[in-house]
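Hey Z.,

So I finally got round to the NAP thing we talked about over coffee. Here's the setup:
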Amino acid sequence: MARVAFIGLGRMGQGMAGRYLDAGFTVSVWNRSKAKAEDLIARGARWATSPEDAAIDADAVVTMVADDNASREVWLTKDGAAANMKAGTLAIECSTVSHQHALHMAGVLGARGLIYIDCPVTGLPEAAATGKLTLLVGAEAADLDRAKPYLAPIGNVVRHFGAVGSGTVFKLINNLMGAVQIASLAEGIAMAERAGLDMNLVAEALATGAVASPQVIRHSKRMVARDFSGASFTAALRHKDADYAVQLAESLLPESPLVGRAAVEAYARAKAEMPDDDEGRMIEIVSRPK
Ligand code: NAP
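And the result:
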């Protein structure tokens, strides 16, 4: 049976790793803090003592960690996954990283004979646990073909944007637009509150009108009710994605004023105050009297 090493068992990674167990793969897991692996170990995963140990006999190594720094740590440090992987092994980066980092990793791991593909995802933890993520892939077509059996358990839609790095380009565009929408929604709701509008009516009108994107639909009622139970995407992660995206935007559109910078600034405040809380709590920052 094919062997997968899964590294990074946060909100997303726990569900994704479980999908490989459900699909009958032989799975080894590693996470910086072991407690998050207990359920997977009970279901049959092998606990590895390091990313290197997890990856040593794997046919594919899948990572789902927070950011560039975490990705560097799990792939490239002394006991990182890449230390002892066999040439030709798939290195599938599902974490949302910067474009520069994805290209750098492709170069470093490629030089060791490994096949790095960027495969950031869209979908919430619930989609991760049920194999319903959308996978945004950057890879040579032949590498994607080889990777497909390892992508099938975790995603039901694969969008192949082109060469390595292109999945990350799209993911960053997507998440920057999400950051702009959520920050702008918070500002709109705060304005409506100050103006004394009927907030049930405002929430309903926003979620069904011309600006009703999935982000607006998801967050409008929660923001009005200040109900952030079931946090799935944190302020720190939203800031990270927007920040990476604006760096990319500045390189692609140096002549253009960037709306995204305002969202990065807004999420820098949210990250400073409530890094591990739901991104929707942006409303509390925007609506607070000075
Ligand atoms: P999370 O719950 O905060 O988990 C983060 C993971 O990264 C944990 O396993 C954490 O280990 C690990 N980590 C952080 N810093 C590390 C370091 N320096 N060295 C090693 N491991 C480190 O985040 P998540 O929501 O699962 O998100 C994971 C990735 O998926 C992120 O890139 C995020 O942008 C992306 N994503 C998230 C969602 C979502 O809805 N949540 C949707 C799409 C994409 P510990 O457990 O030890 O802290």
